[in-house]
Amino acid sequence: MSSEKCDGAAPGAPGDADYRKKYLQKDDAWLALPTPFERLATRFNSHVLKTHVPPGKAVLDIGCNKGFLLAALWHYRTVGVDLSFGFRAAGPAYVIGDAEALPFQDGTFDGIVMAEVVEHLPDCNACYGEVRRVLRDGGILLLTHPNKDNPFQHVVEAVKENRWIRKALGRSDYVGSQHLQEYSLRDSKRQLEAFGMRLLEFHTPSLCLIRLLSPLIYGRLRCEPFFKVITALGRIEEKIALPVGRLSSLLPAGYIMLFKKER
What we know:
Number of domains: 1
Number of strands: 7
Distance between the termini: 21 Å
Order of helices and strands: HHEHEEEHEHHHEHHE
Mean pLDDT: 82
Structural class: alpha/beta
CATH class: Alpha Beta
Number of helices: 9
CATH topology: Rossmann fold
Shape: globular
Oligomer: single chain
Helix content: 25-40%
């Protein structure tokens, strides 16, 4: 793989100041640990990816954030790319880079992950063009994002972005919309088909319970035993969501989609 490995997992890498301004308070080391939503997403996303990408293949995680998914994919050749880094899981290679101008050669990867990333981009088309370029023919894209048709999703974002709620929870005082665009399953299927990507399957593992609870236990209210309770509830929710999530586009909190690059 053609990439530059970033040294170490400690804060201080290029872009770290921007990450902290938006999401962290000073010395908020708790955010080095996964939230219940991150734990469940890591478990489910890694399982889905493994069903289509054999071990030992090259996998890129775009917008890898703290690197929890990459750490779970230890039997792959992994690289994580993000605009900035705060706390990162040890292990994988990390690269500071832009999703709209990936610093990799054509056809480098067998699998690409974009988990909860596309909603933060001003325009997904430039990113999807880069995904197609660095993905080999027949390669797999795992894409996840919140469901814009789910009414509770807007409540979650309002909680996360409210200045007074963030202050009460001990989070940074960054104010502004973190989601620049919202998408449905129909939107993403149409957009990626235009780039020669075929939808293989999709999953609906959440009905918004975990998304509603997770923002309330950051910062001062973080409690590890409560995390375990929410994670257990999330696994129950997952079992309910998988069969019923397809009944209506209003039900899923988000989608996990697998696309294949056609020749």
